C-alpha cells in the first residue's frame, strides 16, 4: 500500500505533502502570481458587483467628470481613484469590466484551440498513415505562419464576407474562432506524440482485443492519459491568447468600444496620449501586463513541476 | 539530399498555390467585383458586357490561371479604398517596412545572442538574473504596449524622439526611399525598431540560453576546459558554435514573425509601411490589398522556410546522414 493511500489521510494532507505544494510554497514569486491570477479572475467574474460604477450606464456618467487625472495628482478626485476617460467613465471600473471581457475572450479561444488540437492530435496519433501525415503537414504549414497573422486573416475574411450588422453581433465568436484556429497546432502535436506512446500500451491493446470501438478507446482510455502536458501548454497559451485578443482589439479589428476589452481600452486611450491624458491608456496596459505576467509565471512553474522535460 | 530538396520544393509550391486559391476566392467571390467598378446608373447590359470583357463568365480554372498569371506580371488589382493599383502602393510602402524589419532583426540578434550566452555561462551573476527577469517581462508585455510606453517616456515626457512617421526620407531612385541618411530619419527609426525587436530579442535570448546550458554540460566542453583552453575560447569556439544550428532555424522563423509584428509596430507609430496598409485594408474590407498582401507575405514565408530547411541540412552533417539512412532502409 502506498503511503498516500493510507487511511485517515485527507485530500488536504496529501496535497500538503506533495512535491508540487512544496515547490509552490518555496517560491514566493509563484505564490504572488497565483494570488494575482485568482484575484483577477474573481474580480472579473463579479465585475458588476465589484466595480465602483457601471461604465455602460449612460445615466451615471457626467461630462463634468471627464478627463479627471488619478486621485493622487492635482485635480483628481477620490471618487475616481484612477481617473476618468473622455466620456467621464471611471477608469478603474472600465478596467475591471475590460478584464472580464479579456479573460472571457482569452479563455474561450484557448478552450477552442484545446478542443480542436486534442481531437486532431488524438486522431492523428491513433490512425497514423495518410490521415496522420495530412494533419501534420497542415500543422507544419500553419506553424510557418505567425499566429497573429492567421488570426488577423480569419478576422479579415469574416469582416469582408459577413454583413456589417451580423458581424457586429458575432464579433466575439469571430475573435474566439480566429485566435483558437491560430493556436491549435501545439496541442495537436503534443497530443499526437503522447497518443502514439499510449497506443502501444497493454491496456489499449486489451481494449482493442475486447472489441471496444476506436472512438471509445480514444475518449475513455487514451484521452485522460495525454491531458497532463495539455494543461501546461494551455496555461502558457492562455496568456498568449489574452495578448492576441488585446492586439487584435488594439489594431481596431477586435472587440468594439461597446464591449471594450483591455486592448480596446488601450486603443481608445492611445488617441488621447498626446493630449497628456496618459492614465487612460497606461492603467489598462499595466492591468494587462500584470495579468499576463502572473499567468506566464504560473505556467513556467507548472511546466517545471509537472513535466521538466518540456523544453 | 536531392530527394529532400525536391520534397520541400513540392511542399512549398503546394502552399503557394493554396494561398493563391484563397486570395483568388477572396478577390473574386467576396462582394461583386463589377459593383465595385461601375457607377450606380450602369445598365444591366453594361454590366453583362463588362463581365464578359473581364472574363468573369469563363470557367473557374481558367479564371484562376489568369489570376496567377496577372500576379506574376505584378498586376495585383486596384485598391477599393485608395483607387490606386496595389502594386504601386506596395512599391511605395515596401522600403519603409524592409528598413524597419532589417534593423530590428539586427538589433534582436546582436543583443539577444550575447545576452543568452552570458546568462548561460554565468547563471549566478546578477546581470544574468536581470536578463532573465527582463526576458520574462519581454514575453508578457504586449508588443503594442511596449511602443506606447516608449512613446510616453521618450516622446511625450522627454520629447527626445518623434512618435510617428519616418522623418525626412531620401529618394535613392526608382522610388526607393530611405530614412537612414538623415538625422530625423534615423531618430524616427529608434523607437519603432526597439519596439519591434524586443519580443524577438527575448525569444532568441531564451533559446540561446537553454541551448548553451545543454551544450555546456557535455563531455567535450569539460574536456576542453581540462585541456587548459581559455574560457572565452571554450565558450565561443566550442559551445556557441554547436548551439547555432537550432538558432538558425528559429531566427529564420523569427524573421517571418518580424514582418507580422511590423503590422502592430507600424500601427502604433503610424509608420507608412506595408503593415499599416494591410491593417487599414482589413478595417475597410479592401479585398484586393488584403489578397495581394497575403500572397506576397506567404511567398516570403515559404522562401524563408525553404532556405532555413536547406541551411539546417547544410550546417548539421548528422541530419544528412540520418536522411540517407532512412532512404536506404
Kindly summarize this structure in a few lines.
The complex is a heterodimer of chains A (311) and B (329). Chain A has helices at 11-16, 19-26, 28-45, 47-50, 91-127, 129-143, 147-161, 164-199, 202-209, 214-250, 262-270, 279-306.
Characterization of this structure:
The complex is a heterodimer of chains A (311) and B (329). Helix content of chain A is 71%, strand content 0%. Chain A has 311 residues and is mostly helical. Chain A has a domain at 97-310: MetI-like fold, CATH 1.10.3720. Chain B is mainly alpha-helical and 329 residues long. Chain B has a single domain (86-328), classed as MetI-like (MetI-like fold, Orthogonal Bundle). Chain B is 77% helix and 1% strand. Chain B is flat, with a radius of gyration of 25 Å. The two termini of chain B are 15 Å apart. The model of chain B has no long low-confidence stretch (mean pLDDT 79). Classes of the chains: A mainly alpha (311), B mainly alpha (329). At the A-B interface, helix 6, helix 7, helix 10, helix 11 and helix 12 of A face helix 1, helix 6, helix 7, helix 10 and helix 11 of B.
SSE diagram, text form:
The complex is a heterodimer of chains A (311) and B (329).
Chain A: H1 11-16, H2 19-26, H3 28-45, H4 47-50, H5 91-127, H6 129-143, H7 147-161, H8 164-199, H9 202-209, H10 214-250, H11 262-270, H12 279-306
Chain B: H1 2-29, H2 33-37, H3 44-53, H4 60-72, H5 86-121, H6 126-140, H7 143-157, E1 170-171, E2 177-178, H8 183-216, H9 219-226, H10 231-268, H11 274-283, H12 287-315, H13 317-328
Antiparallel strand pairs in B: 1-2
Helix pairs in contact in B: 1-12, 5-6, 5-8, 5-10, 6-8, 7-8, 7-10, 8-10, 10-11, 10-12, 11-12
